[in-house]
Task: structure prediction
Amino acid sequence: MFPTPEAERLTLLFAGPGREPLATLAELDREIAGALAPALDHGVAHAKLAWWRQEAERAAAGRAAHPLTRRLAASHGGAHWPALAERVSAAERALAGLRPALAEDLEREARLSHGALWSLGCELLVPSHAPAAREYGAVLGTAIGLAAGQRSDAPRADALSLAHQRLEAAHALQAREPQAAPVAARVVAALTRATLAGTAHPLMQLWIAWRTARKALKELEA
Result:
């Protein structure tokens, strides 16, 4: 869900009220990704993902069973649960050995693997601007997935170029409707840019996250 573990830690550090739902979504992401563990039996992996697909359907019907989805449903009952099913689809495709050969295919996979949960996450953080927040989160998450490096046969340079394009598209959406871009999402966007630029020093990333959060809070409170 995040481009790097450090980006996750810093995003959650500056997420404010968004920390709890984003942390829960990150845990959900790891639960689903667990089906792709190399040591896991293939049949067990398929069963695990089938269960999560059913859980997305249960959550949409108001009958979530897993502690993580129940936690989200308890405080955010109107969540756009189909996004969880999209994340499961990405895992199923990876389990089947799908390796996109073209950058455009890779972008589509990144939208499923990362964009889906960021779409849901942004909606949870700003439910009053749900449609725009979902769009912003989907574009931002796609950029994060491209930057993180999906399993692919597509040229890495093409993936990085698309990641930059998606980040610019997210920024344009933010400029058009600032309230749809929550603080935490802006922080992870800035950290993703830093990842693409090779800015890996922890202190530099901490400064980037703090500066971005401070600027976002001022803009959203204005």
Q: What stands out?
A: The chain has a mean pLDDT of 90. Residues 103-125 form the longest helix (23 residues). Residues 5-221 form a domain with the Farnesyl Diphosphate Synthase fold (CATH 1.10.600.10). The radius of gyration is 17 Å.
